[in-house]
């Protein structure tokens, strides 16, 4: 039966208490034979969907309390996980870096200060903070001015050496280069808004006075805008940065307002340009050019900004499935453990963490899941989800997962428009994953008996539109699962309408509100 709003709220409270407390005694006396056969029959029926005839489907469901496997098909097959990869990256980061970990961004000086003149260089040094906004760079500039510096005789040095120089992830598609969800990775970067899409700028167009007006967020002259668009009866516009350049070309027609998030070519140079602009605004003149380089050991700190702690960053990271956060955290883990801010060092940290928690089958090429060579089995994902329940950081991490049917963007995340009005709403905490021909959903759900369940659903190589409704049907059925009572045939396979049909994570499809 469909639960009322009051019962949904109560169910959410029960679920939160059950998952946050980790392993405990079952809420009711369970008979392993009751209800499991119906559950198996129903999931088999859901997976018999014709869209999956040529596809690969792997599904595992386990009881978190007993470890009993309630359902499995192709549990050990290696499948493309898409953003389910972030489950491993985020958990390893929580374990390795700790929830209190912060990214500092510092301004240092070389040489000697005499009065208001700094004879030497000014160094902007980053450690990967993806939450730095233009206003934060301006605040750093204000600190420099407050320290009494008005003239810098040397250069502005941008120090991004905390990470290596590899900007793009392994196996990332060339045609994603200008997309904000595949932005270059650097230890110095900037975000345009509080989604914290580091390494990107929002380019906006609007029809004004018979002409197409172009603005950027933040305001910056770093990008070269070539506006070829014209005012028309409808908005059909392309905003795209040309390969390997700072040039953004706008073509097509504009009738109203439209925005596009565009990745910059060089996040280090872009961040330095924002800082230099802030210095100018606060009356600090740097006579020399901007150059990339490393701060000498003798450099002295003039100003510093620290990011929010990792425990807070997990929310925009996981709720909105932020690829850049995943890759920055990967390199940060490499730097923390082996003093190497590289993908290879960071991925080793994550894979070692996974193996230490019982995961045997995995292939990681990046931290976000954008690579099509990433591979996990459904059983491996369920093993990770089971193992981390006993971690001291689990409660914070669990709450960072998208929550089905909760319309608040930073609560429901990529699941906010899915499974609304079903027993899964405000119950399922799970990570979504989407690429063309790939969808996945893995996480936690509390059954109708109050029994915590862990599941992983991975669908690959379909040619239809995204079959996310199949994931939703399974998740809803798990929320209805009971060992002690039958589920009515008319309700047990029902899922709410409205699962996004796109090939990318819904939060990647800006400015759509999915």
From TrEMBL:
Signal peptide from the UniProt entry: 1-20
Query: What's the Enzyme Commission number for this chain?
Result: 3.4.16.4
Q: Give one GO term, molecular function aspect.
A: serine-type D-Ala-D-Ala carboxypeptidase activity
Q: Which domain of life is it from?
A: Bacteria
Per UniProt, which keywords does this protein have?
A: Carboxypeptidase, Hydrolase, Protease, Signal
Q: What class of enzyme is it?
A: hydrolase
The family assignment reads:
Belongs to the peptidase S13 family.
Q: What is this protein called?
A: D-alanyl-D-alanine carboxypeptidase/D-alanyl-D-alanine-endopeptidase
Q: Which organism is it from?
A: Nonomuraea salmonea
């Amino acid at each position: 039966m469909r639960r009322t709003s009051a019962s949904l709220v109560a169910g959410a409270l029960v679920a939160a208490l059950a998952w946050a407390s980790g392993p405990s005694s079952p809420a009711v006396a369970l008979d392993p034979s009751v209800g499991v056969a119906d559950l198996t029959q129903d999931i088999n029926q859901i997976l018999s969907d014709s869209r999956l005839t040529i596809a690969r489907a792997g599904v595992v469901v386990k009881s978190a309390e007993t470890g009993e496997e309630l359902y499995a098909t192709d549990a050990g097959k290696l499948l493309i996980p898409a953003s389910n990869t972030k489950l491993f990256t985020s958990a390893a980061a929580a374990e390795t870096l700790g929830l209190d970990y912060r990214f500092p961004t510092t301004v240092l000086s070389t040489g000697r200060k005499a009065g208001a003149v700094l004879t030497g260089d000014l160094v902007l040094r980053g450690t990967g903070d993806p939450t730095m906004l233009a206003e934060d760079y301006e605040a750093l500039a204000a600190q420099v001015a407050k320290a009494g510096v008005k003239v810098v005789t040397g250069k502005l040095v941008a120090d991004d050496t905390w990470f290596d120089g590899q900007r793009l992830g392994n196996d990332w598609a060339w045609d994603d280069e200008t997309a904000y969800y595949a932005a270059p990775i650097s230890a110095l970067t900037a975000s345009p808004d509080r989604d914290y899409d580091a390494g990107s700028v929002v380019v906006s167009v609007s029809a004004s006075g018979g002409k197409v007006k172009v603005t950027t967020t933040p305001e910056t002259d770093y990008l070269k805008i070539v506006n070829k668009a014209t005012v028309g009866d409808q908005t059909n516009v392309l905003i795209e940065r040309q390969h390997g350049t700072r040039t953004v070309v706008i073509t097509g027609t504009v009738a109203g307002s439209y925005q596009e998030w565009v990745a910059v070519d060089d996040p280090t140079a872009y961040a330095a340009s924002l800082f230099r602009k802030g210095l100018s605004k606060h009356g600090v003149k740097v006579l020399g050019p901007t150059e990339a380089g490393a701060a000498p050991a003798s450099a002295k700190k003039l100003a510093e900004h620290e990011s929010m702690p990792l425990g807070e960053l997990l929310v925009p990271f996981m709720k909105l499935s932020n690829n850049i956060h995943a890759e920055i955290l990967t390199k940060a883990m490499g730097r923390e453990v082996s003093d190497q801010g590289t993908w290879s060092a960071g991925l080793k940290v994550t894979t070692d963490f996974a193996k230490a928690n019982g995961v045997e089958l995995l292939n990681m090429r990046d931290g976000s899941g954008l690579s099509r060579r990433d591979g996990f089995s459904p059983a491996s994902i369920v093993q990770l989800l089971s193992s981390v329940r006993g971690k001291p950081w689990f409660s914070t991490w669990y709450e960072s997962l998208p929550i089905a049917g909760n319309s608040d963007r930073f609560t429901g995340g990529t699941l906010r428009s899915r499974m609304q009005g079903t027993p899964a709403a405000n119950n399922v905490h799970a990570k979504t994953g989407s690429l063309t021909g790939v969808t996945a959903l893995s996480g936690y759900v509390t059954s109708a008996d109050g029994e915590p369940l862990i599941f992983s659903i991975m669908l690959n190589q379909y040619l239809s539109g995204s079959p996310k409704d199949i994931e939703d049907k399974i998740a809803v059925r798990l929320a209805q699962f009971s060992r002690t009572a039958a589920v009515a045939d008319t309700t047990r396979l029902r899922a709410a309408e409205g699962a996004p049909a796109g090939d990318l994570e819904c939060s990647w499809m800006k400015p759509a509100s999915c």
